[in-house]
Structures are given as structure tokens and as C-alpha cells.
Amino acid sequence: YIVDVNLTSEYKVKLELGVKIPFTYEVNWKPSPVKFEDRFDKYLDPNFFQHRIHWFSIFNSFMMVIFLVGLVSMILMRTLRKDYARYSKDEELDDMERDLGDEYGWKQVHGDVFRPASNAMLFSAMVGAGYQVTVVTLSVIIFAILGELYTERGSLLSTAIFVYAATSPVNGYFGGGLYARLGGKIWIKQMILSAFMLPALVCGTAFFINFIAIYYHASRAIPFGTMVAVTCICLFVILPLTMVGTVLGRNLAGQPDYPCRINAVPRPIPEKKWFMEPAVIVVLGGVLPFGSIFIEMYFIFTSFWAYKIYYVYGFMLLVFLILMIVTVCVTIVCTYFLLNAEDYRWQWTSFLAAASTSGYVYMYSFYYFFFKTKMYGLFQTAFYFGYMALFSAALGIMCGTVGYVGTSLFVRKIYSTVKID
Asked: What is the crossing angle of helices 377-416 and 187-215, to 10°?
């Protein structure tokens, strides 16, 4: 086996018109102590990726997970007690538990908490796409761990495209089922939106960057044949598979089974303190999840934009799981305080609060561009910020879906035990 090739030229030759240049070569074979399966290790940088800071960030994020899981568990234990239904022994309750009683609090909105989210078509399409992106991300990370996809150029991207197309039924099933439970009727339009929302965003951004690349005669320009192939995948693979998933979702998971009856007339939302407003919760909801992946973002950005090969996918899997847990816990806490303020608009709030992590990632990409790279010019700037916008959008949809799903289970749990008069 050949494990390494080194090309060395002997002397330089001046190029002149009409001069014939003889080419000769000599091959020297030398035994190498490097095993064939380890031939790629020379291109890796363990001193960078396995630095103590990397390990410390994982430990720091893990401690954050323990704290947040403990906080959510405390909230559940305090609210789901055996005297949960009536809070009859009012004189024995402390101040916090009295706040959760019948006078005011989250129980007062039981008739509106399961009211369908506004703009149900867009909401269900984004949740369906989020399920798909989550499955794709987890699958690609596992494939990279098992198959060492980083050793071949383009193999990671090819795997991601294949897995995305193959998991289109996941998008249709969860998005279509949610749309049916929200009372949606225009399911074909919802299916098309769900199938093409992310591909259209990716293709639109890529084509825009491609036009700039063609103008600058850059090697990054995408061939026309590749564009046609991607379009065919969207039309003849992703759309039919999404339709199959949508039909299954509407028939198998499309019946609402809420634990509380929805009132005919919406309950007015009382005034609350400024930090309980949904907009404030959305902005603050992404701070802790971003903090849990902040260091890993630096390593990922460096591998993508500074020509280092990212190979520590075990770290990435661990950070991915930590991000999911932190996102769910933070979103549950945010929703708990929102409902306690008698504001039942939790669906979009929980989704956007979790998705706001991507906003912080995109802002961090500005810092990285100006202080960590030496890029300049229209093409490099458009290429960087265009693809970082796509990365942030996919991350936001994924985190938003995870946050909404976790919060939905939490809301269903706390209201399923309430005895309604």
C-alpha cells in the first residue's frame, strides 16, 4: 500500500516560446512505519482539536445540563403534587405554591392553552422541517464517527444530501400530522411548503453566490449540471416522499387529543411585567443554549474556514446532545413563566425562544469573520455570510423544533392532571 507521496523538483527551467522541455522522473520507494489505516493522520491536528479548552467546554456544558435538568425537575415536582388539583390546604402552602393556586397562574388558562397556533401552516411546516434536520444532523454525525467521512473530499456533503432526501417522509409525517391537529384544511399547500421551504432557501442562496462566483471566474462556481441534478432531486425524490409522510401523518397522527377542552371565546391576556413579554423571552431564550455550544462553534468555524480537517465527531455528538437537553430545559422554564403570567401564546414563543440560538451563532460569525479570518472582497464576503446564514437557519429550525416538542410534552403533562370544574 502507498501511505504517502512526496514530489520534489530538481531545478527550475525558464519558459520560452518554441523551446522543447524534456520531462523525466525518478521513483524511489521507501518503507514507511505508518500503517495504511493511519495514513490520513498527518493531516489532522490533535493539538488543536483535543486541547484542554475543548474538554473544559464539554465539562462546563455538562454542568449546565445538570443545573437545568434539576431546575425543570424542581418545577415539575412543585406543580405535580398530590394536592395538585385543588390546593385545598391554602394555609399550609408557601408563597410560591400559593401563586400557583386557583387565584391566578397557569391553571387559569386551561381553556386556551391548547388553542391552535397562529399561522398554523407555516408553523407546522417549520416543525416538520425541524424534525428532518434533527434526524439528518444526528445521522450524519453517526456516519462520520463510524465511516470516517472526513477522509474523502465531498463525502460528508454527499451523505448529508442523500440522508436529507431519504428522510423526507419524516418531514411530511410530523408536519402534516401537526397541521391536521391544528385544524388545518389546505394540506396540499402545507405539504409543498414543508417539502420546498429548506431546499428553496438553500438553492436560492447557493445560486446567488454562484452568480457572483461566475462573475469573478472563481473555481467555487457550481456547474449547471449540478444545479439540474439538485432540482431533479427536489422534484422527483423529496416531494413524493414528503407527500407519503404527509398522508401517513394526517391519518395516523392528525387527531387532536388535548387533555383540556378549548373555550369558544379566547381569554383576554392580562398585563404583565416587561420581562414576561414573549418578545423578551424569545431574545433571552437562546443565551444558554448558545453558551453550551460556543466553544464548539469556534472549532467548527475554524475547520470550515481555516482549512483544518474536523475529525472529532465524538465531541460533536456530545455537544449535539447537550444542546438538545439545554434547549428543551430552557424552553420549558420560559414557557412555565409565560403560562404563569396567564399568557397562553406558548407555541410560537417556545419555538422562537429555542430558535434564537441561531441568531447568536450568526452574530458570532460576524466576530469570527472580522477578527479570525483574512477574507475580503465581494465574493468571499458573500460566500461566507451566505453559507453562515444557511447554517444558522438550519440550526434555528432544529433547535426551535426540539424546544417546541419538549415544551409541548411539558404542557400536556401539567394540564393532564388538572381537574377542571
From this structure: 160
